[in-house]
Amino acid sequence: MSDITKLTEKIIQDATKKEEQYIIESEKSIERKEELKKRQLEKQVNERLTRYEKEIRAEMSLEVSDLDVKSRAKLLAVKESVLDELFDEGQLRLEQLSQEEFDHFVITNIEKTQLTDQAEIIIGENSETYASKSAVQKWQSAHPNLTLTIAKKTIPRRNGFLIRQGDIEYNFTFEALLRSVKDEISHQLLDVIFEEE
Q1: What per-residue confidence (pLDDT) applies to 193?
Q2: Residue 99 is inside which H or E element, if any?
């Protein structure tokens, strides 16, 4: 019987060894699977973090751009407001010209047009007080080569005057002059006011 006992013990030992090997291999397999799963999870987490970081950067970039656009819009509005105030002040000063200053304004602008023969002056409604008989005589005497006539109608709600010779019309209304100057020098004024480079 001892042979049977030995045989049984050997079978049991072999079975125990195989069981231990299976357990070791199973544990290794489980560890490999867990390690693989852990790597996959880490990879997914890193991919998601990278994606979220990109999304957050993109959102932040959009917000910064939006803030930049808003600040530029506000700055532009301030600049336009300052320009409007400057040109309103200029308009007000032009509307308060003395008779001598208005006469000089008319005479100088007639000279600039270099007209000869006959021309008609159409006075702005708000400048009618400047067109007295003595003022018109002064304008005429400054330009002996030109016969000036004053139109009976005026330019409604305007300051300054128009000169018309045939089909050609020269606009010296204060509003038109300020508008053309505003278009020409607005950027220069803004550079001076806001010291832009």
Answers
A1: 67
A2: helix 99-113
